[in-house]
Automatic annotation (TrEMBL):
This is Carbon-nitrogen hydrolase family protein. PROSITE patterns: CN_HYDROLASE. GO terms for molecular function: hydrolase activity, acting on carbon-nitrogen (but not peptide) bonds, in linear amides. The keyword Hydrolase applies. It comes from the Bacteria. PANTHER family: DEAMINATED GLUTATHIONE AMIDASE, NITRILASE-RELATED. The keyword Hydrolase applies. InterPro entries: C-N_Hydrolase (IPR003010), C-N_Hydrolase_sf (IPR036526), Nit1/2_C-N_Hydrolase (IPR045254). Residues 1-245 form the CN hydrolase domain. Keywords: Hydrolase. It holds the Pfam family CN_hydrolase.
Amino acid sequence: MKLAAIQLVSTPRVDDNLARAAHWVREAAAQGAQFIALPEYFCLMGQRDEDKLAIAEAEGSGPIQSFLQDLARQHGVWLLGGTLPLRGEGGKVRNSSWVFDPQGQPVARYDKIHLFSFHSGFGESYDEGRVQEAGAHPTAFDCEGLRTALSICYDLRFPELYRALSPDLICAPSAFTHTTGKAHWELLLRARAVENLSYVIAPAQGGLHKNGRRTWGHSLIVDPWGEVLACVPEGEGLALATVERQRLAAVRKALPALQHRRL
């Protein structure tokens, strides 16, 4: 199965972001991708965290969800819709990742469990918990015979999430900051691939946004041996690679670490 990880530099304008997403999904499908993944916050990188509240949708209904459904159906692909804000409790939103099948039907949803907080001491500060509420349930689904685990960005720092899901393919749409991404992004993705003997697809935000935030980019696809198969360093673009089931089986046979677990 051919994978495509789309990298964007999203703006505070939803319509502009959807147009760029549609462009790159069309390009990925034209290049033969069967599973296409958008990054976290693909639909909005607002001027303030609170901007997410204004575009939050109800579960199963809303223009962003309809956009993703139509896009998957139009191109006949599996589409991971990065993340979009769903209305939560107490005036907050959930950062929610949706998957649609080639008929445009929703097949999986995951709400981000681990909420990012970072304070550098040099003026760079983030706290997703101010406007977001955490999800509670790990999620995996079957995609063409591959057990596919959903996660979002900061989840990468919590390996127990993936151990619980026993994945063949890990999805990690992200918007890593430039500071944390430069230090830890590739390291974390390759570690998750190696310890789970799994493919990893990680579409990311990648550049300087109109709100002043700079994201690291480097959207990656990694194989079960931890080898980087494709990468988009910065700016919009497309990383393409193929999941090879024989490669997955061969690595797990050569190094049967998953069978050796005791805890």
